[in-house]
């Protein structure tokens, strides 16, 4: 894997720190990312998304969903009570996990639900009114008021 030095980007730009930090995280990420638990990210509307995570074997109380530092963090811990049970085959993984999703600006979590072994997290992008495009009315030359004082009327 190639290593990129992003120091010139930091020196030559102002206000793009988040982009450079994100590139650092992506480029420095280990190739062997954990694949447990499996998840889907789907777009449900123009500005709405849903993350679905397969959490078979976990109860709602075992799961934790939180937003911190611009990232959605989903984690699970299951209390170990296997002392009374003897497995012949154990194929359902209920090991602890933590999965992070970096959120874009103006994306917020609207809710989470747990049903049928799936954890669904709904997200929406809310662009502030100041950042939305707006149309500017163009006035014609006749209707523009002039603040010019006529030289003859003053004298």
Structural features, described:
The protein is an alpha+beta fold. The chain has two domains: 33 residues, no CATH class; 94 residues, Sandwich (Immunoglobulin-like), CATH 2.60.40. The chain is 14% helix and 32% strand. It is built from three helices and seven strands; from the N terminus they run ααβββββββα. The model has no long low-confidence stretch (mean pLDDT 80).
- CATH topology of the largest domain, by name, is Immunoglobulin-like
CATH architecture of the largest domain: Sandwich
The domain count comes to 2
Specify the overall morphology.
flat
Rg over alpha carbons: 27 Å
The end-to-end distance, rounded to whole angstroms, is 80 Å
**Low-pLDDT ranges:** none
* Major sheet characteristics: 4 strands, antiparallel
Query: Class of the largest domain, according to the CATH hierarchy?
Result: Mainly Beta
* Beta-strand share of residues: 25-35%
Could you give the count of β-strands? 7
Sketch the topology as an H/E string, one letter per element: HHEEEEEEEH
- Main sheet: strand order: 1-2-7-6
Mean pLDDT: 80
Helix fraction bin: 10-25%
List the total number of helices.
3
- Structural class label: alpha+beta
Task: Give a quick set of tags describing it.
single chain, 155 residues, alpha+beta, Immunoglobulin-like, four-stranded antiparallel β-sheet, three-stranded antiparallel β-sheet, 3 helices, 7 strands, 14% helix
Structure summarized in a few sentences:
It is built from three helices and seven strands; from the N terminus they run ααβββββββα. It is of the alpha+beta class and 155 residues long.
């Amino acid at each position: 894997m190639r290593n990129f030095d992003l120091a010139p980007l930091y020196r030559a730009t102002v206000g793009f720190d988040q982009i450079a930090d994100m590139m650092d995280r992506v480029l420095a990420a280990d190739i062997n990312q954990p694949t447990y638990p499996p998840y889907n990210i789907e777009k449900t509307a123009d500005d709405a998304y849903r993350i679905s995570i397969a959490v078979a074997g976990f109860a709602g109380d075992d799961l934790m969903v939180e937003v911190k530092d611009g990232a959605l963090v989903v984690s699970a811990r299951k209390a170990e009570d296997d002392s009374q049970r003897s497995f012949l085959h154990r194929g359902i993984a209920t090991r602890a996990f933590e999965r992070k999703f970096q959120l874009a600006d103006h994306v917020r979590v609207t809710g989470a639900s747990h049903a049928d072994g799936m954890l669904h997290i709904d997200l929406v992008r809310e662009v502030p009114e100041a950042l939305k495009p707006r149309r500017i009315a163009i006035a014609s030359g006749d209707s523009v008021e002039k603040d010019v004082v006529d030289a003859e009327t003053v004298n």
